[in-house]
């Protein structure tokens, strides 16, 4: 007897909408939706889906990069699901991995290539993001909000006057010593 079809969807942030993925996977018995980065498999709904599925079930995913961004994680998740007797389908790529049937050479090649492309795209995004931050810092338009409020800074100065070590003060406010030193000097974002 065939099991149920469940969907796994992932959006990278809360402002993204999973509707397009829902359309892609079609009608399913149950849907698991994570709002998290795909760079880790430590996602609540992914873990819940892994605990939920049973032998004979099928996990349907809109696209390979929605399940995992690294080829290692992708292969491990597919192997883990197949070992449970669960099939995995990627709709966009028209790839299917069924337990007990072995993976065809072409499917294994496609999975490896598409997984590597997803991993490469993620690395490019990180590089571009870092380049953008560096450029914004050079132009003086990229600054993070201060971690300490003006009241916190005044309290820290009072504690310092009382002879409390700066390391203790930093721990009390849950900031690094560098942040505390900048705040006490009125430097950086505390200027």
TrEMBL record:
Residues 4-140 form the Resolvase/invertase-type recombinase catalytic domain. The keyword DNA-binding applies. GO terms for molecular function: DNA binding; DNA strand exchange activity. The active site is at 12 (o-(5'-phospho-dna)-serine intermediate). PROSITE patterns: RECOMBINASES_1, RECOMBINASES_3. One of its GO terms (biological process) is DNA integration. Coiled coil: none annotated. Keywords: DNA integration, DNA recombination, DNA-binding. InterPro entries: Homeodomain-like_sf, Recombinase_CS, Resolv_N, Resolvase-like_N_sf, Resolvase_HTH_dom, SSR_resolvase. Belongs to the site-specific recombinase resolvase family. This is Resolvase/invertase-type recombinase catalytic domain-containing protein. It comes from Leucobacter komagatae.
């Amino acid at each position: 007897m065939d099991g149920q079809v469940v969907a796994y969807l992932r959006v990278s942030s809360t402002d993204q909408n999973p509707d397009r993925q829902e359309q892609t996977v079609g009608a399913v018995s149950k849907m698991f939706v994570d709002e998290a980065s795909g760079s880790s498999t430590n996602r609540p709904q992914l873990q819940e889906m892994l605990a939920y599925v049973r032998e004979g079930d099928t996990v349907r995913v809109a696209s390979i990069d929605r399940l995992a961004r690294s080829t290692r994680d992708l292969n491990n998740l597919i192997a883990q699901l197949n070992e449970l007797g669960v099939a995995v389908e990627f709709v966009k790529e028209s790839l299917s991995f069924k337990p007990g049937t072995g993976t065809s050479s072409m499917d294994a090649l496609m999975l490896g290539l598409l997984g590597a492309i997803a991993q490469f795209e993620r690395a490019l995004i990180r590089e571009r993001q870092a380049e953008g931050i560096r450029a914004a810092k050079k132009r003086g338009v990229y600054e993070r909000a201060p971690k300490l409020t003006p009241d916190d800074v005044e309290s820290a100065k009072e504690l310092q006057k009382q002879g409390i070590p700066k390391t203790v003060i930093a721990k009390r406010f849950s900031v690094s010593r560098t942040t505390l030193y900048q705040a006490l000097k009125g430097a950086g974002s505390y200027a």
